[in-house]
Each structure stands twice: as structure tokens, then as C-alpha cells.
Amino acid sequence: MVARGIVYVGDLKGPGGPLNNYPVVINMSLGGSVLDAVEKAAIDYAISQGVIIVASAGNSGNRGMGYPGAYAPVISVAASGWTGEWTPPGNRSWWWNQDVAEPTSPGDFYITDFSSREKSGQDLDVAAPGSWVVGPYQVNSGQTSYFFLGGTSMASPHVAGIVALMAQKKPSLAQAEAESILEGSAIPLPAGCRDVPQPSGALEETCWGDDATGAGLTTADAALAATP
Predict the structure, then answer these.
(1) What is the pTM (predicted TM-score) of this model?
(2) % of the chain beyond a pLDDT of 90
(3) All residues at 6 or more sequence positions from 172 whose CB lies less than 8 Å from its CB, including other chains
């Protein structure tokens, strides 16, 4: 089913398709433990047609990345967090009422413990916000509210949106070039630790290695500036 969806979008983008003259980006907030041969063929086909594919890295921590995110041609995304997301203690609206730091200083951000680490044969590209990200959430049938969720499925759409802006600026943007620009313009987040305040006000140390960040934290302004 996933492969058929990818092929369908590839056909829309390909020669003679209704989207042939338009940029097309797929976001895949899903994954499995192996790269299925049919799914791989579908991804290769879509990319050959000019589609750009972004996928979540997975939420398995040290157990490694999920696929298709771990597949090298795909732009994969780890989950970062903001060190001030739970301050001050008891702030139930979280960062609704916060002046969130502009993403320029690596010390303001961290890699979540659940974000999948890169193992041998896997390829992790960049990181983006994936800790307590607010978005629409259906709480009851026909009733939509907003909720805070954490996961690389929250991080991947950030990057898909950035890629869409890049492709708007350069409609001929292809998969490999988009990945190169994102990696080259990212803010490095080398291996390290951060003391992250929790809802109780207590500090919790969060650490990660170089296998957790890819090229670092991607930002829209830097990626767009680097897009010719």
C-alpha cells in the first residue's frame, strides 16, 4: 500500500503527469525495521521522476533507524528538542507563552533519547523539532483540538515543509541537491549532553552521540539562503 502511494505520486510528477511542471515533496512519517524491496523500488522510481522524499528516522533510540528513513537516497530526520520547553515549572501552556530562542545556538537544543540513532549501513541526514510539538489532534469523533506530541513523525514534516520552500525557490530542485543543501546549511549538534528541565522543575540530563544528529539542526532561513 505504501509503495503504491509512492508510485502514484511518481506518476503524477513524471512526464505527461499533471504535476510534471511542479515541485512535489512526499513526507513519510512511518517506518519499519527493514527496507522492503517493493518499497525501495517505488522510492527509486519516484526520485527518478523528480519527487523529493523526506522521512522520519524512527523512535527506536539506540536500536537504530527505521526504513525508508535509513535508506540513503531518502532525506531522513531525527528529533530535536528545545531546552526551555518545560520552563517555568508548572507552565501548562508550555511554549504558547514563551519567547522561543531563534535556532542559532546549539546549546539551546538537544537530541531526544527516543530519536533513532544511525547504525552501520544506515544514513541519517538532519534533525528538526520533534519534542512536544503542538498540532491538531482529534480527541473525539468529529472534534479536533490541539495536543503536544513527541516523535520523529513530528520532526519530518518540518523538513518536508522546508524542502517545499526550497523547491518553490528552485523548481528544478532534485533529491540529492536538496539533501546536500540541508546538510550543508544545518547547525551542527555534535555529541554532548544538556540539562533539560522537566514539568516538575527537576533537571534531567539528556545525552547523545554523533550517530544521533546527522549534519545537525536544519533551519528554514539557512536552507533557503543556501538554495540557488
Answers:
(1) 0.91
(2) 78
(3) none
Rounded CA-CA distance 110/130 in Å is 10
Residue 74 pLDDT > 90, yes or no?
yes
Cell of 213: 544528529
Q: Is residue 104 part of a domain?
A: no
Q: How many residues does the chain have?
A: 228
- Eight-class DSSP state of 190: -
**Which candidate, 149, 194, 2, 162, places its Cα nearest to that of 77?**
162
CATH number of the domain bearing residue 46: 3.40.50.200
Q: How far apart are CA 68 and CA 3, in angstroms?
A: 11
How is residue 64 annotated by DSSP? -
The residue segments making up the domain with residue 197 are 2-99+109-226
Name, in order, each residue with C-beta under 8 angstroms of 16's C-beta and a sequence gap of 6 or more: none
In a domain, 181, yes or no: yes
